[in-house]
Amino acid sequence: RILCDNGHICPKRCFEDCGNCQVPMLRRLECGHEAEFPCYQTEFQCNHPVSVELPCNHRVNNKPCYIDIERFRCPYPCNVRIDTCGHTCTKRCHINYDPDHLKYKCSKPCTEYRKNCSMQIPDHICSKYCSEECADCDIVVKKKRSCSHFYNIRCSVDVETVDCVKPCKKNLPCGHRCKLECQKMCGNCKEKVKKTVPECGHEVQIECCKVPTTSDCKRKCVLKLPCGHICKNTCKEECTTKCNELVDSVIPLGCGHSSRIPCFMNTVGYIHHNVQETVMECKEPCSASLECGHRCSGSCGECYQGRLHKICLEDCGIDLVCGHKCTVPCRQICPPCLQKCMYKCSHNRCGRNCGEKCTPCREPCPRHCRHVKCEAWCSSKCTVDPCIEPCMAQLPCGHKCIGFCGEPCPPLCKICNRDELLEFYLGYEEEKDARFVLLQECGHAIESRGMEMWLESGENEITVKRCPRCRTPLTITRRYHHYIRDSIEQVQKVKEKFFGNQKENMLLQRHLNLRLQAVYSSSLTLSKGK
Questions:
Q1: Which of 131, 149, 221, 255 is placed for a possible disulfide with 105 were both Cys, Cβ 3.0 to 4.6 Å?
Q2: Entry's SMART domains (predicted)?
């Protein structure tokens, strides 16, 4: 069977469908190239490589003939210098897409200085990609203000916008250095200087900018009163009209004593006509023995010649065994302490009255640091000794802490606050390895070895442990917990001896109430029988 006009015979078997003629034929295409393809096919894309010059001026030798020159993508790299950054374009030639690189995002490292960089040195080059927006230059640099002071600030910040808080360097017209902050206007000189007051001739210390007057003088007045005595007021005050200089009375007073009285009263006529007023000036000590046992501290005049004594202001003031002071005045026997118990720890405080036994604290012991850790309860005996390693913290002044590891840091520095540390001396304060403990009850910093000797020196006394400097009872300073704990136990035994056991007291109180009720009932029965 013939399949086509070219007379090709079907190569298949008789029962098979012949289909299109598949006989290969060599033909000449419109482009002039020859190609072999099946007989039935009328159209064919010529893949013959041709050499052409592309619109981008690049020449290629492998463009398939059938592809239009406008649609063929140039295989050469772009290599155009980007106007915005100066880098070379890394894409393939793209003459037909974004030829001016308006949408191109450069992925190379940025070569510009950071935004608002004032130094423009290599270290300040932007660290972002070229296509990303540069951030403000945040590198801290040293800048000089117009006032000649230096500040460490970010490179992008104008140093002139920073308020200068350093001392002013200018000299005032008087010659003194301005003591205000540099940012403030220099005002009047506040330097304290010595100047002479023209009216009294005294030298006073006033501000340099002021003119001295008697209102600035606090010294004694040098003028004489009509009686001949020097005025007792200060220069800034008016001279007194009544001289209060004490002089011997010209005659005995109404009480019979010859005493020293104010000068303006010291005439025979005044003493005779103002007996009550003048006897009140009698300074002869009363010294009478009061009912409370104290000597009267008043004078003849104050006690109205022994008729009405001055109230005794003496307080008992002794330290009770519990640590409180006896506050009842003029009593020979101190009453039981009724104040709230002063004992506390870092977790809580005892809420009972002073005469009652404290409830033990069952919180974990706070004694722990990187060297030691106590496993006991807060109120129990510690399982480890206090840490003896020095604290490694740094004080605000820059020097090392003078305390122990794990303890509250004393606020004083051995170098900067040396005089203050040596105000209270126990003997070891000036040792090179001296360590101080902050007593949390009063805030005093005490040298540790001297403090331990102080605590051990009173072991035979039944009393609370106290700060050796101010006598404040110690209750919370953990380093001396064993001393405090032992003293508390001793004091509580004394409390129980004085006030009795709580259960026994309750039983006794109940027994007394029953006895009183019985007495009351029997008295009612007797009264009804009558």
A1: 131
A2: ZnF_NFX (SM00438)
